Amino acid sequence: MTVARQKKESRPGRGSAFPEGGFKVLPRKGHTREADFRALLKPMTQSETHYLGMVVSEGGSVLARAKVEGRPAAGDLAGLLAQAMRRPLTGVAHRPHRIHVRGHRQWQELFPHLEELGICVTVRRELPKVKEAYEDYLRQMREVSRAGMVRPTEEQAVVERAFPAVAKWVRGHGHIDVGDQEGFGFVVRALDYGGLVFEDDTADTLAEALAALEKGLAEYCEREGIE
C-alpha cells in the first residue's frame, strides 16, 4: 500500500532528519528502491545484535550499505537513504521516485520528509532485492572468512564419515562442547538453539567422548524425527 501524507509533520528522532537543502536540487528519476536493515549473525561472545542496512536498485545494485549496533532507528534509515541519494555506490546522485520499506513503526516519522522530497513511500511485506543482496553479502563474508582456514589432512577429512550424526548436528541444528571436566575425564554436550539436548561425562578419552556423542545424537535425531 502507499502511505498517505501525514497532516501533522513529525520531527525525526536524533540524527534522523535529512539536512536542509541539497536533496531537492538532485535530479528526480523514475526509479524504485528498496531499503531495509537485516540482522547479522551474532557471535557467542557478542551481546548485542548488529544489523546491515542496504538500499538496493530495481536491478539489484547496492546503492548504499551501513552497519549499526542494536535496533536500527529512524536516523539510521535516514542516513542510509541520504547516502544512496547523494553518494551512491553505483550510478549518479539523484532522488528516486519511490522507496519500498517494511512496515516497522520507527520508519514512519521519515515518511513526510521523504514525501517533501517528492519520494513516494510504499510499505511492503517482502523486499526481494534487499533479500538477494543480503544473502550475497553473507556469502561474500563467508568466503573471506574461509580464505585463511586450515585445510584438513586426508586422515582428518574422514571425521564426518566416522561421526555422521555429529556432522549433521553442527551443520544445521546446533553446536557441541567437548572438554576436560576438572581433571576427571571428558564431558561432551550437544546444544540446539534452545539449550542442552545431550550430555555425557563417562568418557576418559576424546574418542570415547565422540563415540558417546555420536550415539546420543543419532538416537535424539531419530526420536525427534530430525532428518
Describe the protein.
The protein is built from six helices and eight strands; from the N terminus they run E-E-E-H-E-H-E-H-H-H-E-E-E-H. The protein starts with 31 loop residues before the first strand and ends with a helix. It has 227 residues and is α/β, with parallel strands linked by helices. The strands form two sheets. Strands 3-2-1-4-5 form a five-stranded mixed sheet. The chain folds into two domains: 32-143, Nucleotidyltransferase, domain 5; 156-219, Double Stranded RNA Binding Domain. Strand 2 and strand 3 form a beta hairpin. The chain has helices spanning 74-86, 111-116, 128-146, 159-162, 164-172, 206-224, and strands spanning 32-39, 50-57, 62-69, 98-101, 120-123, 174-180, 186-192, 195-200. Residues 1-15 have low confidence and may be disordered.
